[in-house]
Amino acid sequence: MSVTQPVRSPRRRAPRNTLNPDRILDAAIGLLDRDGAEAFTMRALAEQLGVGTMAVYSHFRGKDEISDAVAQRLLDTIEMPPAGCGEPRAELREVCRGLYRLFTEHPSALQLLTARPQRGDDAIAVIDRMLGLLHRAGLSRADAAYAHVALMQYTVGSALWNTRRARALCREEVRERVRAKLEALPPDRYPALVSLAPELLCAQDDAGRQYEHGLDAMLQGLLGAS
């Protein structure tokens, strides 16, 4: 008995002479955000674009060069407040919020910047802006440096935590299992957790608000009460 093999649809080819660096970077960002840096290869990118792998190499020397260009493009999208437009604490808060939005809206940026630290113009500009604002707010040179690292660690860590948690709890049934597990805990053994479970779940589900709550607490601790 013969078995009919499924017919694979031919790969849709890109129109001739339409490939360019901007189109490649757009596709790379989409691929990275969807599948993660671990799945990002030149072959996967070429398939996403509907071209042969060598066509991509005609614009970029390899995956690392594309990754660096993607990171720089994404950093360029950070909405920075106008310099010197207000109180340093408020400006610093907006810079941190811009970084957090970038890392949560484009998980690829978070992966690329932590796996391959960038020192391009945009990355340097963010570092310089944060250090300048911290120093302007009254911190010593050493304290400004430590505060900058602490704020970056908190921002990157929060974005990583929240994007991974959102991915793990993307299905409602998974969320319900987490709620049910908390509700089933013995209150005599975990009195605080059982009592505050609704508030804890609310805080975890509102990731953006939770980040800003922690950011404000950090800024107050680093810079003092406003």
Automatic annotation (TrEMBL):
<dbReference type="InterPro" id="IPR050109">
    <property type="entry name" value="HTH-type_TetR-like_transc_reg"/>
</dbReference>
<feature type="DNA-binding region" description="H-T-H motif">
    <location>
        <begin position="41"/>
        <end position="60"/>
    </location>
</feature>
<protein>
    <submittedName>
        <fullName>TetR/AcrR family transcriptional regulator C-terminal domain-containing protein</fullName>
    </submittedName>
</protein>
<dbReference type="Pfam" id="PF02909">
    <property type="entry name" value="TetR_C_1"/>
</dbReference>
<keyword id="KW-0238">DNA-binding</keyword>
<dbReference type="InterPro" id="IPR001647">
    <property type="entry name" value="HTH_TetR"/>
</dbReference>
<dbReference type="InterPro" id="IPR009057">
    <property type="entry name" value="Homeodomain-like_sf"/>
</dbReference>
<feature type="domain" description="HTH tetR-type">
    <location>
        <begin position="18"/>
        <end position="78"/>
    </location>
</feature>
<dbReference type="InterPro" id="IPR004111">
    <property type="entry name" value="Repressor_TetR_C"/>
</dbReference>
<keyword id="KW-0805">Transcription regulation</keyword>
<keyword id="KW-0804">Transcription</keyword>
<dbReference type="InterPro" id="IPR036271">
    <property type="entry name" value="Tet_transcr_reg_TetR-rel_C_sf"/>
</dbReference>
<dbReference type="Pfam" id="PF00440">
    <property type="entry name" value="TetR_N"/>
</dbReference>
